[in-house]
Specification:
alpha+beta, archaeoglobus fulgidus dsm 4304 fold, about 35% helix, about 20% strand
Length: about 260
């Protein structure tokens, strides 16, 4: 009995994901990453997709590039896109990455001097505030996928914790959060296997709620956490915050009758 089209697609994605996973570098590869103050880093990017409420197909794909260290917007690209790939848990990157990669390619073609040296991506999408922390599930999420295909250092950041692989909102986890006294404090997220899957970071003195940081590509976890703290004016890193705000504003302007 032959496999169904959905099964064929899943097998294709599993194979491609395994191939790309082998190319991920979880180490510092750039000179600026080794500098205490990230000397040499001048541009950081953020990507996001925002959906109209009730529509999981049409979205605004957003890229922003900010200066570093002052975090001023240098470039933005808002593009309405239609997602054609199905949603399959664990393979969200195949649905969304092509449009974010296209935004980076447009920038590289039209204004190459503004290409970011580092990119932030959220670990959740699909039009809601629920984490689909695919990196923790499959150890290869959107930040890894985008990083490998673009060749740029990437980091994934989430606002909430997906409870998998022994990582959960236990009393111990809550006490660890309470122990984060100031911006920059963090603790590791350790899976049942003993592997460190990411870190919880108090990103700002102003917010007691942490964000969850995972390595995407071409950066170590410790450097990712340090840079994330440096890129935070508020709880969420400024590149992602700006990408989210601007994509939502684009939808409000161009689709005023829609509930975004």
């Amino acid at each position: 009995m032959s496999a169904s089209p959905a099964e064929d697609l899943l097998q294709q994605w599993e194979s491609e994901q395994a191939r790309l996973r082998q190319q991920v570098l979880e180490e510092d590869t750039e000179d600026w990453q080794r500098s205490p103050d990230f000397s040499g880093l001048e541009r950081v990017g953020g990507v996001d997709l925002s959906f109209i409420k009730g529509d999981d197909v049409n979205a605004c794909a957003q890229l922003v590039v900010l200066s570093y260290p002052d975090l001023q917007v240098l470039y933005e690209d808002s593009q309405m896109v239609t997602l054609t790939a199905p949603y399959i848990a664990g393979f969200l990157a195949f649905r969304e990455t092509p449009f974010l990669l296209e935004a980076l390619q447009r920038l590289k073609k039209n204004q190459p001097t503004l290409l970011p040296q580092h990119v932030y991506s959220p670990l959740f999408h699909f039009g809601c505030d629920l984490i689909v922390a695919v990196w923790i599930v499959a150890e290869f999420g959107l930040a890894c996928h985008l990083g490998v295909l673009s060749g740029l250092p990437c980091v994934g950041v989430a606002k909430n914790l997906l409870q998998v692989q022994g990582v959960n909102k236990s009393e111990e986890h809550q006490s660890q959060i309470a122990a984060l006294q100031r911006g920059g404090d963090s603790f590791p997220l350790i899976g049942a296997s003993g592997k460190v899957l990411g870190k919880a970071l108090r990103s700002s003195d102003k917010s007691s709620k942490p964000v969850y940081v995972s390595v995407g590509h071409k950066i170590s976890l410790d450097t990712a956490v340090r840079l994330t703290h440096a890129c935070c004016r508020y709880r969420v890193p400024e590149p992602i915050r700006q990408a989210d705000c601007r994509s939502r504003e684009y939808l409000r302007i161009h689709f005023p009758s829609a509930d975004t």
